[in-house]
């Protein structure tokens, strides 16, 4: 029964307007393939990475600063060359990609949950609650997101003991980025909630005595998730880029747990000494990741817009 149901749902999705729109857009298909490849490399990095860049026992300083495999003086075992510590650049990128994507997804989930909850409460309850939430959102929007993230990051690092900064770096980044990006979700959900709470089905639910929380979660929430999905998709690329920026500035992931931003920061120090591959390849990976996510987000926004169908 379950297999038949799954097959039916899969067939229904294949015949849907959404999948048809996806197949028609060659740019979106290419972006999805690139994103799937990056996700695969990040998830299975311990299996497919040629070397473990964190295993000091397998590092040989005689293999440091080797160029990519197609250049003169290269070692074919290191496809994208090695850095100044003899770490394989390809392996470092795969492991760094894992951290960047984890921080991106975790911060987007945090921002979405917080923003959707505050947007629902503000739009449905109204009054002083709505006013306070929106004024806080306005204050956050008056500052560049990276500055707010830097502020939250600095406060969190000031609270934690110095010996826990490296171990808690991921948690601090997730909180800094997530607490910066919830405003977009809250404002969008609030606007949709203001419309939905006037609908007949909400009035009927109130009439029969359904509680506020149940109305918000079971009646209004499913009808406002479409825009949230689009915002979350686009914000994933922004979150990854924000993490890379913070790491590049030296307040993100440490060198012992390098993300793509950390790899770019470390490699940038040797760019003008001729070791260009240490910074170019992580930068290209970050650019492809953010571009692919943004392209899919743009397509999803258009595909879910009934006015463009």
TrEMBL record:
Domain spans labelled ABC transmembrane type-1: 97-297
CDD domains: TM_PBP2
A Gene Ontology cellular-component term: plasma membrane
InterPro entries: BP-dependent_transpt_permease, MetI-like, MetI-like_sf, OppC_N
Subcellular location: Cell membrane
Lipid bilayer topology: Multi-pass membrane protein
Membrane spanning stretches: 29-49, 99-129, 136-156, 168-185, 220-241, 275-300
Domain of life according to the entry: Bacteria
Main localization of the protein described in the UniProt heading: membrane
Keyword set, alphabetical order: Cell membrane, Membrane, Transmembrane, Transmembrane helix, Transport
SUPFAM superfamilies associated with the record: MetI-like (SSF161098)
GO biological process: transmembrane transport
Family in the record: Belongs to the binding-protein-dependent transport system permease family.
PANTHER family (UniProt xref): ABC TRANSPORTER PERMEASE PROTEIN, OLIGOPEPTIDE TRANSPORT SYSTEM PERMEASE PROTEIN APPC
UniProt protein name: Peptide/nickel transport system permease protein
Source organism of this protein record: Aminobacter aganoensis
């Amino acid at each position: 029964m379950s297999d038949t149901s799954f097959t039916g749902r899969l067939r229904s999705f294949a015949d849907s307007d959404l999948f048809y729109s996806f197949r028609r857009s060659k740019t979106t298909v290419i972006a999805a393939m690139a994103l799937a490849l990056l996700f695969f490399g990040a998830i299975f990095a311990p299996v497919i990475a040629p070397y473990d860049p964190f295993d000091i026992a397998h590092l040989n300083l005689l293999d440091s600063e080797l160029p990519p495999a197609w250049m003169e003086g290269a070692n074919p075992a290191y496809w994208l060359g090695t850095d100044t510590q003899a770490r394989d650049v390809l392996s470092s990128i795969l492991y760094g990609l894992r951290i960047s994507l984890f921080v991106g997804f975790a911060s987007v989930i945090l921002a979405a949950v917080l923003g959707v909850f505050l947007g629902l409460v503000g739009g449905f309850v109204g009054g002083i609650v709505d006013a306070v939430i929106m004024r806080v959102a306005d204050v956050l929007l008056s500052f560049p997101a990276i500055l707010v993230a830097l502020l939250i990051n600095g406060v969190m690092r000031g609270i934690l003991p110095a010996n826990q900064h490296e171990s808690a770096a991921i948690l601090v980044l997730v909180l800094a980025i997530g607490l910066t990006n919830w405003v977009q979700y809250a404002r969008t959900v609030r606007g949709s909630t203001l419309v939905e709470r006037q609908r007949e089905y909400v009035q009927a639910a109130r009439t029969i005595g359904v509680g506020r929380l149940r109305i918000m979660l079971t009646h209004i929430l499913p009808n406002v998730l479409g825009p949230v999905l689009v915002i979350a998709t686009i914000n994933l690329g922004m979150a990854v880029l924000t993490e890379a920026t913070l790491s590049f500035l030296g307040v993100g992931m440490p060198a012992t747990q390098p993300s793509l931003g950390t790899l770019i920061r470390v490699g940038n120090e040797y760019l003008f000494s001729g070791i260009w591959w240490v910074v170019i390849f992580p930068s290209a990976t970050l650019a492809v990741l953010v571009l692919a996510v943004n392209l899919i987000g743009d397509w999803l926004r258009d595909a879910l817009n009934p006015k463009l169908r």
